Amino acid sequence: MENNFPSTRQTLPAHTGGLLLIDKPQNFTSSDIVAIARYVLHTKCIGHSGTLDPMATGLLILLVQRRATRLQNQFLKLDKVYQATLKLGIETDTWDAQGTVLQTKKVPALSLAQIQTAAQQLTGEVRQQIPPFSAKKINGRKMYDLAREGALKEERFNTVKIFAWKDISFDGKDTISFTLHCACGTYVRSVARQLAQLLGTTGHLTALRRLSIGPFSVENAFDGNKLKTTPQAEIVKFLQEPVL
User: Fold this and answer.
1) Which residues form the catalytic set?
2) Mean pLDDT confidence for 129-154
3) For residue 13, is pLDDT > 80?
4) Helix residue ranges per DSSP H, the chain
5) What CA–CA distance (Å, rounded) separates 134 from 155?
6) What is the pTM of this model?
7) I need a labelling partner for 21 at 20 to 30 A (CA). Which of 36, 48, 95, 209 fits?
């Protein structure tokens, strides 16, 4: 990242703070956004309410100052809604478009009805594999670091809740788009891969956007592309009370 930050900053008073809704751009990590916000707001006390992968865009809630960060667990538990695009027939090591291709597999002739039926099988409580390239920690180390080193020796799983699949569409060839309403802890990359497997092939995500977290919508978020060039005083105006 370039260091073209605003030059005029004041330390953010401890009694201020709250929620800062950010529309995260692609190719930024959640940690990148937190680092920029810490610099611009001139405070180290900033966390977030759930990681977004570098490829993903959309809502990232920053918790600014102690009055917000102390509520982090409450915000982490909120349901989420994602919009995603799945490319069938090609599997990557990261299960998204930023990974290396591992294998290709023929895509069978499919109908929208077949896809909808498969999605229904992945509704309710779903056991999913945690992506090897994820921020999930094992013995204090992130899985993506272990995966890069070839030190990740076994698959890890968790059980999540999928509330609904909406707006499923199919191009008739190899691309499926959908909106997913799910509980915290859900890896959409993993769910999409499971869907592809149920359809007799494999696949990876080519797009992922988080539309909402609990009652908070990306429509009301600050453009993350402008975060590092916007004066501190302007960003402070976007802070919301940390209430659910």
Assistant:
1) 53
2) 63
3) no
4) 30-41, 66-69, 72-76, 112-121, 143-149, 188-198, 232-236
5) 12
6) 0.89
7) 95
In contact, 190 and 128? CB cutoff 8 Å: yes
What pairs with residue 18 in β-bridges? Answer: 64
The region, left, alpha or beta by phi > 0 then psi within -120 to 50, assigned to residue 147 is alpha
What angle, 0 to 180 degrees and rounded to 10, lies between the N-to-C axes of helices 112-121 and 188-198?
120
Return the beta strands (E) in the chain as ranges: 18-24, 46-48, 57-64, 80-88, 90-92, 101-104, 124-129, 137-138, 141-142, 157-170, 175-182, 203-213, 216-217, 222-223
- The fold of the 18-77+216-236 domain, in CATH, is Pseudouridine synthase (3.30.2350)
* pLDDT at res. 6: 47
Domain chopping of the chain, boundaries: 18-77+216-236, 80-213
The pLDDT, as a whole number, for residue 89 is 98
Q: How far apart are CA 108 and CA 88, in angstroms?
A: 10
The CATH superfamily holding the domain 80-213 is: Pseudouridine synthase (3.30.2350.10)
**Is 1's pLDDT higher than 50?**
no
Assign 45 a pLDDT band (cuts: 50, 70, 90): very high
Residues 100, 103, 108, 114, CA torsion sign? negative
Q: State how far the alpha carbon of 239 is from the alpha carbons of 22, 72, 229, in Å.
A: 11, 16, 17
Q: What is the pLDDT of residues 80-134, one digit of tens each?
A: 999 999 999 999 999 999 999 999 999 999 999 999 999 999 999 999 988 876 6
